[in-house]
Amino acid sequence: MAAHSPLPEPEPGTVALFAMEDRVRLVLSGELDLATKADLLHAVREAVRYDQPVEVDTRHVTFMDSSAIATLSRLTQHTDQRPIFISPSDVVRFLLDVTMIGELVDVVDHDGALPAATAVHQASVTTSA
Questions:
Q1: Of 33, 34, 41, 64, which has fewest CB within 10 angstroms of its CB?
Q2: Largest Cα–Cα distance of the chain, in whole Å?
Q3: How far is it, in rounded angstroms, from Cα 2 to Cα 73?
Q4: Where would I find the H helices in 16-120?
Q5: Is the dihedral of CA 67, 84, 93, 10 positive or negative?
Q6: CATH dotted code for 14-108
Q7: Where are the domains of the chain?
Q8: Within 10 Å of residue 18's Cβ, how many Cβ atoms?
Q9: Which residues of 29-50 are buried (b: 16+ CB within 10 A; e: fewer)?
Q10: pLDDT tens digits, one per residue of 90-105
Q11: Burial track 82-92 (b if 16+ CB lie within 10 A, e otherwise)
Q12: For residue 6, what pLDDT is reported?
């Protein structure tokens, strides 16, 4: 029998929200699914409460299910300005296109300078395979 290499362990999903003077930034990474839904929903609600432009950094997202993209879609419904997705990973770009949420957000391929920020909400959730 041929030896098989083990599948890589899933990368835990993380959700962090940073408040700055003129905007808020939601930083997401790893696998975002039902295990991270509550933390993501809390962070999105907090971001909306600031009533400032919202940046969503998804460049390190390795997996996103429908619950995560649906939660992020709330930003388009509850903010006055279009959310900005910074350097979305391929999986996030795909979901933005398929769900047509990409038509309601701005996508940029660069990250502006990030001034000093205050972490408002941070969560890390380990997902299981």
A1: 34
A2: 60
A3: 45
A4: 37-49, 66-78, 90-99
A5: negative
A6: 3.30.750.24
A7: 14-108
A8: 21
A9: bbbbbebbbebbbbbbeebbee
A10: 999 999 999 999 999 9
A11: ebbbbebbebb
A12: 75
